[in-house]
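Lab notebook, bench 4. Still working through the backlog of constructs that have no structural model yet. Next entry is a single chain of 864 residues. Request: give me the structure tokens for it.
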Amino acid sequence: MPEELRGDVRLLGEMLGTVIAESGGADLLEDVERLRRAVIGVRAGTVEDSEVTELVSSWPLERADAVAQAFTVYFHLANLAEEHQRIRSLRERDDAERPARESLAAAVRDIRAEHGEERLTRLVRGMEFHPVLTAHPTEARRRAVSTGIQRVSAHLDALRDAHPGSSAQAEASRRLLEEIDLLWRTTQLRYTRLDPLDEVRTAMAAFDNTIFSVVPEIYRTLDTALDPANVGRRPARTGPFVRYGTWIGGDRDGNPNVTHQVTREAIGIQAEHVLRALERACGRIGRTQTAGTAFTPANEGLRAALAAAEAADPRLFAEVQKRSPQELHRQLLLFATERLRATRERDADLAYPGPEEFLADLRTVQASLAEAGAPRQAYGELQHLIWQAETFGFHLAEMEIRQHSAVHARALAQLRNGEEPNEETQEVLATIRVISWIQERFGVDACRRYIVSFTQSAEDLAAVYELADHALPGGRPPVLDVIPLFETGADLEAATDVLDGMTRLPRVRERLHQTGRRLEVMLGYSDSAKDVGPVSATLLLYDAQERLTRWARDNDITLTLFHGRGGALGRGGGPANRAVLAQAPGSVDGRFKVTEQGEVIFARYGHRAIAHRHVEQVGHAVLMASTGSVEQRAERAAERFRATADQVARASRDAYRALVDTEGFAEWFSRVSPLEELGDLRLGSRPARRSAARGLDDLRAIPWVFAWSQTRVNLPGWYGLGSGLAAVDDRDALRDAYREWPLFASLLDNAEMSLAKTDRTIARHYLELGERPDLTSRVLEEYDRTRDLVLDVAGHQRLLENRQVLSRAVDLRNPYVDALSHLQLRALKALRAKDGDDGETPEELERLLLLSVNGVAAGLQNTG
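Model written out:
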């Protein structure tokens, strides 16, 4: 472990120990230490597992709650220490002369060297990275806990920056201890369930704190790599290639809490945040742009814009002019700042009609400064503001609507039969009317994508257009890009047939003509993996990408594939940059759209340095995956190893389906995991199930994955892979596929990460709660088989052998996660017992259970 990280973990742990002793007494701290030593002893082989069970069973529930709180807060602090170490590492690797691995500068260097300047320019101009923020699964921790951790982080920075022995260091240490004390005293559980607008406001923190300021810095990084000699003195060579979307407040599939009114309010909250951010940035640049006309004369365009400003509001313009005489560039920027304020406050007389008019003012100032011989003023901070306005507009992120195809079918059946629309149908029609309102208020790009989940035919897509006609009879329907979402294995296989029918729809043909034959298709990772298992789903998705790419080429379509990846490995998660490089050849083609979900948003955008690195890594992968050489290598590997992969997938799917189709499996899963109790965590506004049914089919993929992670089994990330690998006699072929085919390497590496977070001993305790020895032995045997064969094929002696940072993080956490798992098992066993223990109410036991769930989620760093 790096010494700086070791020091931070030790310091924060000692401070937490001080706080625990002050709050609960030395005996509470001793109980925490006893459990810590015991779980470490179990892993070292010096303590029996049963001794830990006896220890946690000996405490009253109140003491067990306090111990669970202690370990949970420790994980928050350990995560924070690791984040600080990552930031230190990023800063140490920042070298302008030697681009970091997987950076935009590295991509520019490599593509320029291998493919030449023309190809590089074409790739950069066409590059698109489109992250879509989603509310689910949301974070297990409360917002109060998150903000408390941010304060601890700030004081840790202050402590490390202070001079040793100084009064500043002493004060920073005192404040750090105070904040850790408050974090310890803050309840981990939410009192009320989040509503969708809470989720919108939570996501806004990422925009306010990092995204708005980081995006132009990333563009500048690419611009510098393209032409470092004249950076900041010439027009930018890169445009805004990042476009944010959001489902938060727009995704109503199975979430009755997302209504048309919520969508309307959500876009309003977004607009408020982005307009404030633009207003602050424009005002800051305007106040500092003090270049006078003597040295920096205004051109005719600027003077005309100022004349128009004076005519629009003579009183306001006179005030601006009085504050900045002979500083004409400043005058227009300050006037633009006031117009942004008026736009935010809905002052129609002064407000900008849209972002295009604001951008026109900025470009007028930029052109005048450039003509006046002040290129550094024209292409410096002002260019950053232009990039921000181009990226975020006045709506921040495009609101995407998602609804289930069955809802549309029911609504249309009512309307076609002339029935009185019920509440569900009225809501569908009201949603379409809100889309129309958003487009009138913020422009078409603020809300035009309508995603139909569980698309099975072109009729499912045509239904949206027909509903739009019903929503606005005689009026002008909104511009809609209806996007099919293919989720199950069968739907993925039928995707191109659906698209054939889709492109015959008159509205789609008209839209293709308007967009230059651009089309978008969404692929669901979560439900496909739950349907057929992780291995078969990976190959099905790869096949679907190949077929869709070929279909788009044959039909002269510019296709963007939208990847509905989750945060956890069992839902398509994992390193985003490696996921891009593992896509089917030709399927990226400079464009990558992906969901960024729940806790992943804050893991990637919680700190500016980490956010910058994340977007750079994805940008690097998008550029590299779109080069002919990378595509050809992947294509050759796919051709060579596809038969082997198919053999793995078939056996894997058979093993997976044999497990989940076993009679009584759903009931067993509910018994061995905290699945039914997870709803009480109030993770988000969305129900855990699509309907009132109790089977696995209606269970959402998020609680499916979350519950398995709590049991320390992590089954959705690896189950079936061992059986699949065992079905191939040629072990050398598997090893070659791992070395040469990015898809196969990504599949095994992700499984290896999931296996590393699995603990066989703890898992057995959970599985045995179901009183089905047959299922317990089947799961554990498949774990052993998968672990052994993954290590053998990868050529590793131990899990994560080649991932030192991740391996260190898992090894650091595992014993402490064990402590929380034992506390959770105590509660779960009592809740599952028919009689229960005397004096322990279900409410008290469930509180301990949920506290431990929060702690395990913090320790494993993922929910769903």
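Notes after review: Residues 662-802 form one domain. Residues 104 and 438 are 35 Å apart (CA to CA). Flag for follow-up if needed.
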